[in-house]
């Protein structure tokens, strides 16, 4: 079993050997080796998955979504909540018989879940069908690891935590031809007490503005219409986030810019001003508040109070009374009382979010909150979550009606849920919009007059080509 790869062979040799191997494979089997790469979790992980695909395509792999025809199955995993991890363990269990029938099949997991020692240990002992486990710092070693497995049939566990320099010279294979994710920074320094991300993704590293700008420019040139800038807290981007937005706004072309996430402790008036003043930046802010009680926010180490948070909301709404906010919320944090949970309900009524992403607290081993006494049963947490969603449904039904009669810009990305002739897309405000329109409008900005507000989406009619 190999634990250290840097000495094995240098990266160039490994990629050449893989290329030779894949050529040989194609001559023998009549097709290139196929890889199934599936990313779980957040957009950052999806973006990493696109880089992995880029690396694999350089050494001759093509891609499939069918486990039965893959020679390499790699799950790029998420560790943010227990159910995300359970899903992956279930999938790995399902693959056992495939490996028994085809010992040459390589099964691997990578990403956030794989970065945790206890997960690697569990896989080492219990999931013998898995050949490859590597965390979020080891992508650059991928050719070495693969070649080691193919040539020696070793099992590899690479949990290196070496912070490598950001590699700007990568090829990304994006499945989506309309929307693209562009990471501007990696890692997180915030250590919210419930969250595993800083442990599995390391400290913050920002990409240089010139390489972000060059990437966005190239994407726009290639026809991408929506660019989402990614970071766990874009407001601590080392080179200034509002400035980056203003620079990207100057790029010519028919496209729009989104970003996520913003930590409220660092959200500034400059950020709101930049959103409102930049033409291409969507008029929407995802501002995760997590809880409505100051005691819980303190225990979460969020470093703001609800009053601080509401000041940002008030500033934006003083400039645009209908400014769109969305948020993330956690219910059932250790020691939260029902009264404190009700403060979260009060907060969502006060802010009036277009949408909330709410989660039941999940204990993550290694975090500070994991050591706090968690007296709330899962059943109770589930009930609170339901209660919160019902509250939000009421809020959004009333608040979303402000869109009725308004004309919004929508980027249709596929067929709608409403009916066969409908397309679905998002407005600048990040609202799902269903519109009766021809498929030729997919990937093109259209103007839609909103006729109906449902609690999950808006419905409207096509006005004209933009
Ligand atoms: N960096 C982002 C921020 O601070 O807004 C959030 C990134 S995190 C991957 C996405 C969301 O997952 C968080 O905003 C939080 O609501 C939720 N989350 C994180 N850890 C959690 C846990 N242990 N249990 C439940 N939800 C959790
Ligand atoms: Fe997790 Fe907090 Fe970092 Fe977001 S800011 S990734 S919630 S530690
Ligand atoms: Fe993202 Fe999950 Fe990792 S939310 S950063 S993939 S823990």
TrEMBL record:
InterPro entries: Elp3/MiaA/NifB-like_rSAM (IPR006638), Methylthiotransferase (IPR005839), Methylthiotransferase_CS (IPR020612), Methylthiotransferase_N (IPR013848), Methylthiotransferase_N_sf (IPR038135), MiaB_methiolase (IPR006463), rSAM (IPR007197), rSAM_horseshoe (IPR023404). [4Fe-4S] cluster 1 binds at residues 42, 78, 112. It holds the Pfam family Radical_SAM. It is an enzyme of class 2 (transferase). [4Fe-4S] cluster 2 binds at residues 188, 192, 195. Binds 2 [4Fe-4S] clusters. One cluster is coordinated with 3 cysteines and an exchangeable S-adenosyl-L-methionine. The keyword Iron applies. Keywords: 4Fe-4S, Cytoplasm, Iron, Iron-sulfur, Metal-binding, S-adenosyl-L-methionine, Transferase, tRNA processing. Residues 174-398 form the Radical SAM core domain. Residues 401-464 form the TRAM domain. The keyword 4Fe-4S applies. Its EC number is 2.8.4.3. NCBIfam families: miaB-methiolase (TIGR01574), MiaB/RimO family radical SAM methylthiotransferase (TIGR00089). Monomer. Belongs to the methylthiotransferase family. MiaB subfamily. This is tRNA-2-methylthio-N(6)-dimethylallyladenosine synthase. It comes from Ruminococcus bicirculans (ex Wegman et al. 2014). The lineage of its organism: Bacteria, Bacillati, Bacillota, Clostridia, Eubacteriales. The gene is miaB.
